[in-house]
TrEMBL record:
This is Zf-HC2 domain-containing protein. It comes from the Bacteria. Residues 136-293 form the Mycothiol-dependent maleylpyruvate isomerase metal-binding domain. Keywords: Transcription, Transcription regulation. Residues 55-85 form the Putative zinc-finger domain. InterPro entries: Anti_sigma_zinc_sf (IPR041916), DinB/YfiT-like (IPR034660), MDMPI_metal-binding (IPR024344), Znf_put (IPR027383). SUPFAM superfamilies: DinB/YfiT-like putative metalloenzymes (SSF109854). The keyword Protease does not apply. It comes from Streptomyces griseoaurantiacus.
Amino acid sequence: MNDGPGNPEESRKHGGQDRAPRVPPPRASVEDGGRTPPPAPRPPAGPALEHRVLMSLLGAWALAACSAEETAAVEEHLGECGPCAEEALRLRDAVGLLHPPESLDLDPGLRTRVLDTCLERRSPRIPVPSWAAPYDAETARLDALLQDFGDAEWHAPVRLRWFDGREPAARRTTVAGVLTHLWCVDGLVASALGLDDPLAEAGADKDAQDSPGVVEGSPTARTEAYWRAARVPPTRAVRGPWREQSHAVVRTAAFAGGSGGEPAVSYGEHTLPLRDALLDRAFECWVHADDIAEAVDYPYEPPAPRHLHGMIDLAARTLPQSLAARRRAGLAEPAPRGRHLVAAGAPGRSLRLEIEGTGGGEWLIPLDSPGAAASPEHEVAHLALDGVEFCRLAAGHVPPAEAAAGHSGDRTAVREVLLATASLSRL
């Protein structure tokens, strides 16, 4: 039997009446009663500091390096002193310049390091050749950039830039149009490996023929042919075929790289070995990914240093052919009298190309003919550029006259090499 306070028998013992336990009623808030709420407790006052002391603390305050007491004193003073408030605002803006916005992209080398760690534990059945790794990495980075694009981003305008041998040139398209361009030109490598050609699927392969200033079968001709054959502007639907093709190229290159005869890739006016063609495609993928990122106002980092070095090396090795092509077209100064007759393998005039920064190095560029041997004893000029600046020049994104380059020696040789570097670019 319960003998608690709620028991009637127990209530009678105490002379009380039978009732439920009393619950206190809710209290009315201060606001509901119309009364003024009590003032909030003020934080402890900061130390009383002189004006000159508070002024000297403004720099530390802007850097968030003051103690809590000093911060309170400075901020109280800023509410009372106009000149100090203006100075504090200028200092805060200056601090913002010291911390440029960081890219949200992952480190370009992170994917490679993760794969290397995995492969240390379990070797692949068919390893990707080291010379195909830059293309594999750059296509993966571009695919990651495109992953969350909405319809508005896919149709954002993009300005493609290159140097046509005489002056800068440009072409406007969209993000989807840029990816279509990469898909069409990557098809040159796919065709060399025996894979399907995007132009054949679109029925544009027969239309990829000569037009004014365009070489049949060249990257420009292929892209123009596909754009002409397309009935509607490119959309985000191109991402799937482009990604499948890039994966197939890497897988097939892994097999082709171990065979006795490495296939050559035709670019219309010239051919490249498969490994150089994949370096070329990695370079263009990075350049156009940067174009896309710029169009949607998104930061994009350069390739990993070892991949960047391979791209710079390919451009440096191609410079003698570019110089010779410009001379044949009458766009370059002819070689000094008798120099164009330098026998193959004989030493000729050379330019030392120094590329600074990550992925850099030094290259001796033969100036007189592609077959001449570069020789330190015949060095007539020295040209130095930052690695990314050199790549921007080779992509046609920087006019030769505006490239940030240091040089000494023969000015004509330096000028011709800068122009030949920019002439490596194309649509």
